[in-house]
Amino acid sequence: MGGKALLRGLAAAMLLLALPARPEAAGAPADHLERVVILTRHGIRAAMSTPEELGRWTAEPWPSFAVPPGHLTAHGFQAAALFGGYYREHYRALGLLPAGDCAAARVHANLPQRTVETGRALAEQLLPGCPAHVDTVTTKADPLFDPVPAGATHLDPDLALAAVRGRIGDATAWTAAHADTVEALQRLLLNCAPADCRAQVQPGGRLAGRRLLTDVPSALDRGQGDDWLNLQSPLATASGLTESLIMAYADGAPLASLLGGRVTADALNRAGAAHATDLDARLRTPYIARVGAGPLARHLADLLAGEAPAVTVLVGHDGTILLLASLLRLDWVLPGYQPDQVPPGSALVLERWRRVDGQTVIRARFTAQSLDQLRTLTPLTEAQPPLSAPVFIPGCSQAGPAMDCPVERFRHVAEDATQGE
Q1: How many folded domains does the chain comprise?
Q2: Residue at 249 is within a domain
Q3: Range of the domain at 158
Q4: CATH label of the domain that carries residue 116
Q5: Alpha carbon of 71 to those of 16, 65, 140: distances in Å?
Q6: How far apart are CA 296 and CA 266, in angstroms?
Q7: Rounded CA gap, 329 and 351, in Å?
Q8: CA–CA dist 368, 345 (Å, integer)
Q9: Assigned domain for 24 exists
Q10: Is 27 contained in some domain?
Q11: Which N-terminal residues, if any, form the signal peptide (predicted)?
Q12: Predicted pLDDT at 23
């Protein structure tokens, strides 16, 4: 093509780009959102252990929470409410949750205080002006969240032990494989290099009476009663300490009270590897996931395919989401967190869309407030949203940015995954 012809072609193309869109293009049909199911973890809670118990592992005293161990904090209630307000505005803009329709959303929570109160915070914001009702079961255990104690499924402790052992092998070798993670957390907790810590915890030392993570014995065997698995290791201890630090930071504890100011969002992200590794062994083992999340997976398929409110919120725990993720082979990574981490208030969101071509599909994503959004109670808007990542559903999701998963195919995936439960 000659130079003049090329210039004429470019000029014509630029003119076409400058023309206003045709009316029929502006009013072109669009995909339509029909239903949403939000499987969320409870919000920020108090540590499960006392400050005195936690302080055995740290150079500085541990901050206390204003509520009993394991309870949702006042700060946590506010953070959950901010997420609820974001859901309301986001889905109202997409045609769901019309003002004044108190039947447009339903919140169902597990029995502990932290899940019920998280549900109440969400319900108040999803349906302002309506009673903030949170459904719970009247039995001792909810089959959606605790199917084994509820009698909905049966767990064979010996098979479960074998399944975990088959993934991590000898507990001592598993601990050794993650030695760097344990030593990094011990440095953060005690503010000393591994070679110096041992001398400093001896009588007369700067840290006399403190305990070393590296001294925790490693064992993997069958537990007793509800604690069917005994997985003891430095990683398991580090896991609980890390989660307690995350909760304290997210709850807005003064930085000076968090290990003398050594705790930052970046430090917690690195330390979170211990928690993620421990939960992976306990909850992402396929046999355990099938027993622990089978009823929930089938319930989600029913909600998405059958009749249900426009928005359904199920409030559980990090284990609830991780068991389901293992069952359906779901993964995600959010900035500032470990792979597959489930921060306070985070959620797996399943949306049912009717596409322009008439096909009904599910679009999944994982969403969470960042640690600093939690800590500072940052308002969530479309301009300043929570973190979010699309989730691919193996055996169902199609190629493309939305990773569309046909609704009926999702039901088959859920049913196939729970076979042999």
Answers
A1: 1
A2: yes
A3: 32-418
A4: 3.40.50.1240
A5: 61, 9, 18
A6: 34
A7: 18
A8: 7
A9: no
A10: no
A11: 1-25
A12: 40
Q: What is the pLDDT of residue 143?
A: 97
Q: What is the mean pLDDT of each run of 10 residues along the chain (421 residues)?
A: 44 37 56 97 97 95 95 98 98 94 97 98 96 95 96 93 93 92 94 90 93 94 80 93 96 95 93 92 94 97 93 98 98 96 98 96 98 98 97 97 96 90 61
Facing residues of 279 across strands?
Answer: none
Q: What per-residue confidence (pLDDT) applies to 12? A: 41
Q: 311: which strand partners? A: 36, 105
Q: Which of 195, 192, 219 is nearest to 206 (CA)?
A: 192
Structure tokens that stand for 334 in this block: 């959010």
The DSSP secondary structure of 32-76, one letter per residue, reads EEEEEEEEEE---B--SS-HHHHHTT-SSPPPPPSS-TTPBPHHH
Of 237, 194, 217, 241, nearest in space to 55 by CA:
241
3-state secondary structure of 183: helix
In a domain, 277, yes or no: yes
**Three-state DSSP state, 378:** coil
pLDDT at 115: 98
